[in-house]
Amino acid sequence: MAKTAGLVGLVGIGATGCSTDEVLRFGWPVAVTPQAEKMRELWTWSVIAALVVGVIVWGLILWSVVFHRKKSEELPRQTAYNLPLEIVLIVVPTVIVAVLFYFTAITQNYVTDKSAKPDVNVDVIAFQWNWEFQYPDFKTDEGNVVSTVGTSGEIPVMVLPAHKRIQFKLRSTDVIHSIFVPEFHFKRDVFPMPEKNNQDNVFQIDQIDRPGAFVGRCAELCGSYHSAMNFEVRALEEADFAKYMEYRKEINEKTGKTYTTAEALAKVGCKDWCSPLATTTTPFNTDRTAREASGSGQK
């Protein structure tokens, strides 16, 4: 009992350093899309409901321990059936499950809803162990689709406009991967041949609420270098995104090739939060010949 009281006290003291918003998120990242905020609300109220049920159960356990301790060798009155109690134990959980199901279905329908005319389309192609992001609405001066491909030497950066509805179309070239941006609060598996696997490989977000830089990951164990299969997101204001795409279409006079993602972002003039290159993670060299045995160099 003393240990429990002490633990509750420590949690209370620790929580005083958090804002109300941080406490109600219960560890979730700050949402940057309307869909993410809806899921955060469902999570918050589900946890609160679970805590309320938990407090009631803990109270009943303590009440039984305190007021129904063994007082003598005489057996207490035995009750075989308690119809009112049994009805309560059936009706209350049924109501709780029905309410949770209703709000879960409402949130799921909103999160998976699709507009017939998204503002921007992005084709996400996953492969062992990196990403390619294609923008089918935008073509280079050479007639190719604007694309960003990650390599063993560079983490790919997905550039998106803020305040625009974006549609993502997912496909894998080998095994099952999973795209996950924590601030979107949404993870979607990426299947090879999604049509043949009966997978809905398209999802949308209403908008990204603010410009910013976010980290994305593969959230499905997909092989030896799964842990290094990361990417980053740059959400730009609409005008900056338009400039970025214009640069991606043009030929860089210095290189004789179209501007890369990093070169175009640098030309747009990213602020500190918008580094042209990935800053939160580094690529892992997947060239096995570049590795040395752990005992090399030892005598």
UniProtKB/TrEMBL annotation:
It is found in: Cell membrane; Membrane. It is a multi-pass membrane protein. One of its GO terms (molecular function) is copper ion binding. PROSITE patterns: COX2 (PS00078), COX2_CUA (PS50857), PROKAR_LIPOPROTEIN (PS51257). The chain crosses the membrane at residues 44-66, 87-105. Its EC number is 7.1.1.9. The keyword Transmembrane helix applies. Its cofactor is Cu cation. Signal peptide: none annotated. Its main location: membrane. Keywords: Copper, Electron transport, Membrane, Metal-binding, Respiratory chain, Translocase, Transmembrane, Transmembrane helix, Transport. InterPro entries: CcO_II, CcO_II-like_C, Copper_CuA, Cupredoxin, Cyt_c_oxidase_su2, Cyt_c_oxidase_su2_TM_dom, Cyt_c_oxidase_su2_TM_sf. Residues 117-247 form the Cytochrome oxidase subunit II copper A binding domain. One of its GO terms (cellular component) is plasma membrane. The keyword Cell inner membrane does not apply. Belongs to the cytochrome c oxidase subunit 2 family. Subunits I and II form the functional core of the enzyme complex. Electrons originating in cytochrome c are transferred via heme a and Cu(A) to the binuclear center formed by heme a3 and Cu(B). This is Cytochrome c oxidase subunit 2. It comes from Lentzea aerocolonigenes.
